[in-house]
Design brief:
It contains twelve helices and 13 strands. The protein is α/β, with parallel strands linked by helices. The protein folds into three domains: 207 residues, Rossmann fold (3-Layer(aba) Sandwich), CATH 3.40.50; 62 residues, no CATH class; 100 residues, no CATH class. The strands form two sheets. It has a seven-stranded mixed beta sheet with strand order 1-5-4-3-2-6-7. Strands 10-11-12-8-9-13 form a six-stranded antiparallel beta sheet, with helices on both faces. A hairpin with an 8-residue loop joins strand 4 and strand 5. Helix 1 crosses helix 7 and helix 9 crosses helix 10. The N and C termini lie far apart (50 Å). The chain binds iron/sulfur cluster. The site of iron/sulfur cluster (SF4) has 11 residues, from helix 4.
Length: 405
């Protein structure tokens, strides 16, 4: 039975009988480590009585990964009586708390999601994972959840945390040590110590279970391009047109409010599918099906401001839903008001988006951007703190009136 808790009011306390935690992301590397370690735990420095395997559910793992985990790995955990703890977030904010979806030495199932998923978090604000900088999505969906549990359970007591970084990514060992902020924690990297790279891990799982173990990541992850695995990723989408359709909707919604919000930086997922190919067409048809839902007309404003000493501040945004309806009806409303203000409307004749730029983005900061756009009605009203004051401060001399004001 899942148990929810807020960080302020925890249902969990220190566990003196525990001193090792193994992070399991369900993928090739950490699964290979687990499977091999369980052949002889003591010789790998593991006392299973004092160890827990930790998994943070993001909510969008590929179905084949979940299947393989339930088919091969959970029976292994059950056979060895390994304690398996499954966690997830309850909401966008830290104060919404977290849930222990399961905590068992006889795990029967893998929980695919908690009360609030990364997908819901992204779609509700009309965005996609960011390629640049730190993987904030991963820190939000996994790092913060795991750290919360570890802090409750260890309360500053020394413990070892085993990470499944493979020997091809040795640099992550140093990144992990630098990022580790939990008192008492010591990170360990056995795959790096064994010299097991990706290939060895794949081969081990293939030999052990007779199955090729696919990569584990969220279906909408933007990193397959940077890992040089885009063709494999697209092929995976083609085998799941329903998933492709959903991910296309996530991207299309985000790009309606911000044309730069392509999943893969310079390229969008949508432009990677070829409508003349039968398999790609199935993905595009699933996308059209996904768009068959209520749409909304949004007023979006962004501020690109500088600090007093001229550095760029984080972009501020205000998103407001003005109307709900069918895409054609909203596009007509936008067109008629824009026309009377002599503002052009961009219209996507294939998938239905309409958009008007009142203040297009320029290239020099500080600047303001303002647009009206139609999109699937999944995005909530949201405004950064202090937005209106900053908006008026920047545009105090402007006389321009938006068409739908
Ligand atoms: S798999 Fe990709 S989208 Fe999911 S949390 Fe990790 S980096 Fe973010």
């Amino acid at each position: 039975m899942p148990r929810a808790a807020s960080p302020q009011l925890s249902l969990f306390g220190p566990e003196p009988d525990l001193d090792v935690v193994i992070n399991w992301g369900l993928g090739v590397d950490s699964s290979a480590y687990l499977a091999r370690m369980l052949t002889a735990p003591a010789s790998h420095g593991i006392d299973l009585e004092r160890t827990a395997v930790l998994y943070m559910a993001t909510g969008s793992e590929w179905p084949e990964t979940r299947l393989l985990v339930e088919e091969f790995m959970l029976p292994l955990l059950r056979e060895h009586g390994v304690r398996f703890v499954q966690l997830a977030r309850n909401g966008h904010l830290q104060q919404d708390g977290f849930t222990v979806l399961d905590d068992s030495r006889c795990p029967e199932r893998l929980y695919a999601r908690g009360a609030w998923t990364l997908w819901e978090d992204l779609e509700s604000v009309g965005t996609v994972p960011q390629q640049a900088g730190t993987r904030k999505c991963s820190l939000w969906a996994k790092g913060a959840v795991g750290d919360w549990w570890l802090t409750q359970v260890f309360g500053g007591r020394p413990f070892r945390q085993i990470m499944g970084f493979n020997a091809d990514e040795e640099g992550r060992r140093f990144g992990d040590q630098a990022a580790s902020k939990i008192p008492g924690r010591t990170g360990e990297f056995p795959l790096i110590d064994w010299g097991w790279g990706r290939r060895q891990c794949e081969n081990y799982l293939l030999g052990r279970f007779g199955m090729h173990w696919p990569k584990s990541y969220c279906t909408f992850c933007c990193f397959p391009t940077s890992m040089g695995a885009l063709p494999t990723h697209l092929e995976r989408m083609r085998t799941h047109p329903d998933i492709a359709g959903e991910v296309l909707r996530l991207e299309y919604t985000a790009m309606s409010l911000n044309p730069n919000a392509r999943l893969y930086g310079r390229k969008s997922l949508l432009e990677m599918f070829d409508p003349s190919s039968r398999r790609d067409r199935a993905c595009l048809e699933a996308f059209e099906h996904e768009l068959d839902m209520p749409w909304a007309l949004y007023h979006v404003r962004r501020l690109f401001l500088l600090t007093a000493d001229g550095r760029r501040r984080p972009v501020m945004r205000s998103t407001e839903r003005l109307d709900l309806g069918r895409p054609q009806q909203l596009a007509r409303r936008l067109a008629s008001t824009s026309h009377s203000h002599r503002v052009d409307v961009e219209h996507d004749p294939v998938y239905g988006r309409a958009r008007t730029w009142v203040r297009p983005r320029r290239t020099t900061w500080p600047m303001a951007e303002e647009l009206f756009a139609t999109a699937p009605a999944r995005v909530i009203d949201k405004q950064d703190k202090g937005f209106e004051q900053e908006w008026h401060a920047l545009l105090s001399g402007s006389t321009r009136q938006p068409p739908l004001a």
